[in-house]
Amino acid sequence: MPLCSYEQRIIKETERLVADPAPGITASPHDDNLRYFDVTIQGPEGSPFQNGVFRLELFLPEEYPMAPPKVRFLTKIYHPNIDKLGRICLDILKDKWSPALQIRTVLLSVQALLSAPNPDDPLATDVAKHYKENELDAQRVSREWTEKYASG
Amino acid sequence: MSSDYEFSDNEGDYYDSDEMMDFQNDDQDEDDMEMDDYNDDFKISTGSKRKSYEVDHTSLSQTSVEKSMKDDVDHICGILGVEPAAAALLLRHQGWNKELLIERYMDDPAKVLVDSGAAVQEPARDSTSIRTHSVDKFAAGPSSRRATRSSSKLLSSLTSPTRSSAQKYISSPTASASKSRKDAKSSEEPESFVCPICFDDSLELKQIALDCGHSACSGCWNAYTISKIRDEGEHCIRCMTEGCAIVAPDDFVHNILVSDAAPDSDTTENLVAWTRFQEILVRNFVSSNPKLKFCPYPGCTNTVSCPSAASKSVLTSMVPIVSCGAKGIPGSVKDKNAASSASSSGSSNSFYDKEHVFCFGCPIESDHRPVVCGVARLWLKKCEDDSETANWIKSNTKECSKCQSTIEKNGGCNHMTCKKCKYEFCWVCMGPWTEHGTAWYSCNRYDEKGGVEARDAQSRSRASLERYLHYYNRWANHEQSAKLSVELYAKTEKKMEDMQITSELTWIEVQFMKKAVEEVEKCRMTLKWTYAMAYYLARGNEKDLFEDNQRDLEKAVEDLSELLESPIETENIPMLRQKVTDKTVYVQKRNEIVLEDTATGFQDGRWRWNVSVDGFEEPLEEVRVD
């Protein structure tokens, strides 16, 4: 099957993302590149990222949906699984990717990752160490960063 | 077909028929027969005349390895009473360890079937998910629930198991259970089918599903399978649905790619993927059997069986250099050469049609006799450490501490899973990941002792560098000279053939140069490695004797090399021929002496090193060199 036939899937996914957005998530494609999305995710309630609005970029590579989308945080965030370049350590973005997953499910997973930091599988080692040793203090820093970088 | 093979055997180049082999797979009977005949030609019969520096080995074609895989599968079918497709998946999952598989299967057949992807997980078992990633558990749960709420039409097709006609592959206790589960649901089956991957809903879509019942259209299955095989080199092709662990059996993959491929798919691409899939399966089998090794030469699909070198411990007493019997590399220098000098008979190409010689015991893809693997690797690592490439490899890659595959980390976290052996480890300390779950940051402590040692080593490095360069220059020189003599030969041969036309000499009479150059090249390779050996040999009588032998061989080789450079005139050919032939025989003898002596030395455990080498005794303090 030629790759371009997945254009249809991308268009349908995009339509649904715009018409029926997932709670706390927006994703809109660039006019000149329908594979490149500007994304915002609201920090989940009850997490140190609450009240924050995080900007991300999402790119669908040519092999999509056989290969996972590339997702990166643009807003600075203090999270053990997100490094200072905004790269995300999430299994479904790597070896656990399945073509049945969609942009929507990926972004929901990223949102869930904000509620559930996993310092045992760290990407930002210093942040993870902080979370392991003094979770309350680490959460305080996460809240500070959210206020400083992700409010408005 | 058969005439093709005969032709290629004569030329020592069977790759001309490569394309034919690729497309012959449907015609199994004929193919098997051909391959067997062909195999016999390449069987290396050693036996009684085997020298102490040679090792018994057999070359196997891909077809004969597939045959032994099939034997194992049949064996398991007989014992466990499962279908061949399931048996193959079970064996692959257990690394082809039949004893372990049988033991585990007897303990808990359902679990083993589910773990290997051969059967659907029982509904009751859903809570004990085999997925281990903690982030994922958290993330996938709520997201999939929410998705179900918000998109009725789309996801109904995801969850409703619409089974396509004859897609039943596995009969097992769990499969029948899951089937009844599906039958119960099938009343809710929607009228129209929307492929959950491409979102297409046209009526002519062909639905395909594995035993789990997760349907997708044939085009998506095709694109997915090709992507898994071509881009990831994966033999384990799981259901496309997220979290579903069912693995596609071989005949399913065959259907998707060959016999029942989607109409608009690219036939050539399909066949390439299918061929690659079969090769991946063979490679997987070969790599899990220590008695086998896949030929490392590009484009070659042969396997060498060398039971006597199967255990790592024998590598201190032998150098298992083997050959898969094939020659040349498809689409390499040889072709270019043939194009540029189409007139020449092709005999000069023989130097490019190198026999596929490699070491069974280590990753070195050439003959590194007389020196054993451990020392050869030490030397190569040392040499590479001085080059830019090595610097890059050193700073960007690490070796899997279990299977020694070189790994480049190109992003992501420090939790690494080796693509080859699935070993999970920490990129920072290279220790097993299991220890990191609880206290991952213990790998941050700097080893003070290591720092002191590094400073000590620095002051000694100046003197040792001089010593190293002595050996390295000679090593590199032999390699370079070997290349030059081959180039010289190409020129000389042209001249000799011209002479054959102008003078009364026969073709046979002008061939003596070829044998001589071959011998020079071979001996220079031996000499090259003797320098690696000498660099690490501990001082003493043994080393002196070794260097005497080395000197004798080197002198003989240099004499012969010089002779080969002498100008060729028609009148002095008979004399030159006599001299070169004599020298060649002598050089051959000297080379054998070096190889024999070192090989028996390894068998007797005679050699001592000045550094610690795996499997050998630690060096005495007074001979230690850093």
TrEMBL record, chain A:
UniProt-annotated catalytic positions: C89
Which family is this sequence assigned to?
Answer: Belongs to the ubiquitin-conjugating enzyme family.
Which PANTHER family does its entry note? UBIQUITIN-CONJUGATING ENZYME E2
EC no.?
Answer: 2.3.2.23
**GO molecular function terms here?**
ATP binding; ubiquitin conjugating enzyme activity
Give TM regions: none
Give the protein name, as stated in the record.
Answer: E2 ubiquitin-conjugating enzyme
Please give the Pfam families that the UniProt record associates with this protein.
UQ_con
UBC core domain boundaries = 5-151
Superkingdom as given in the UniProt entry: Eukaryota
**UniProtKB keywords:** ATP-binding, Nucleotide-binding, Transferase, Ubl conjugation pathway
From TrEMBL, chain B:
Q: Please write the reaction equations for the catalytic activity of this protein.
A: [E2 ubiquitin-conjugating enzyme]-S-ubiquitinyl-L-cysteine + [acceptor protein]-L-lysine = [E2 ubiquitin-conjugating enzyme]-L-cysteine + [acceptor protein]-N(6)-ubiquitinyl-L-lysine
Region (Disordered) residue ranges read: 1-41, 119-185
UniProt biased composition (Low complexity) = 143-165
GO BP terms, alphabetized = protein ubiquitination
UniProt domain RING-type: residue ranges: 191-447, 195-239
Task: Give the InterPro entries listed for this entry.
Answer: Ariadne, ARIH1-like_UBL, E3_UB_ligase_RBR, IBR_dom, TRIAD_supradom, Znf_RING, Znf_RING/FYVE/PHD
Annotated Pfam families: Ariadne (PF19422), IBR_1 (PF22191), UBA_ARI1 (PF21235)
* Acidic residues bias (residue ranges): 1-39
Query: According to the UniProt entry, what is the EC number of this protein?
Result: 2.3.2.31
Instruction: Write the record's keywords in alphabetical order, separated by commas.
Output: Metal-binding, Repeat, Transferase, Ubl conjugation pathway, Zinc, Zinc-finger
Origin superkingdom = Eukaryota
**A molecular function (GO) term:** ubiquitin protein ligase activity
Would the keyword rRNA processing turn up in this protein's UniProt record? no
Q: Which PANTHER family match?
A: RBR FAMILY RING FINGER AND IBR DOMAIN-CONTAINING
Q: What is this protein called?
A: RBR-type E3 ubiquitin transferase
Q: Which organism is it from?
A: Lentinula aciculospora
